[in-house]
Amino acid sequence: MDEEINVEASEMADRSASSLLRSMGSTAVVVVVGAEKLVIANCGDSRAVLCCNGVAVPLSRDHKPDRPDERERVEAAGGNVINWDGFRVLGVLSISRSIGDYFLRPYVISEPEVTVWERKESDEFLVIATDGLWDVVTNELACKLVKRYLSGKIRRRFSEGTNASCAMEAASILTELAMARGSKDNISVIVVQLKKHHCHGSLKKPNRSSP
């Protein structure tokens, strides 16, 4: 049932995009967090990664044109994959599934790939992000940094406010790292805690106003 809902939602979003912006598109990764399982729906190269007992476990697979099964699907539909500054569908798009990009149908599709993960006691947190992060930060490094922050082993130098949650601060650390490493794409990062951590937060930003 959860899988059907995710697929229908993706199709509805795609229909809306096709009528408005035929030459524009976006990726999407959606995670439904239930008491007993996680349901992940992915379309494109945004990614969901689970930290389970300190180990990075990818819960989605990037839809890239050079992925053998995706390349086979594109070619079966009559399209081709061209290596033009990286592998691209028809030499244009560097992903093989998206919401929108309707001018590349039927080669680029909006059907999500759905994964179901049975929750375990060892599941710690999720990192859900666009390729602006994953292009420059590995799954393993992302999980390592978030785990160290949530356990209080590292601290973010300054926080914009004192009300930010530990998960939000951890996401900011990854965003700042991607920027420092020269990421050239949009960077969106979400951290979802699956068990309680007692992080120590960030150093308070100094008040520069006159006393």
From TrEMBL:
**A Pfam match:** PP2C
Occurrences of domain PPM-type phosphatase (ranges): 1-194
Please give the SUPFAM superfamilies that the UniProt record associates with this protein: PP2C-like
PROSITE patterns according to UniProt: PPM_2
Q: Which GO terms describe its molecular function?
A: protein serine/threonine phosphatase activity
Query: What InterPro entries does the entry give?
Result: PP2C (IPR015655), PPM-type-like_dom_sf (IPR036457), PPM-type_phosphatase-like_dom (IPR001932)
Taxonomy, superkingdom: Eukaryota
The name of this protein is: PPM-type phosphatase domain-containing protein
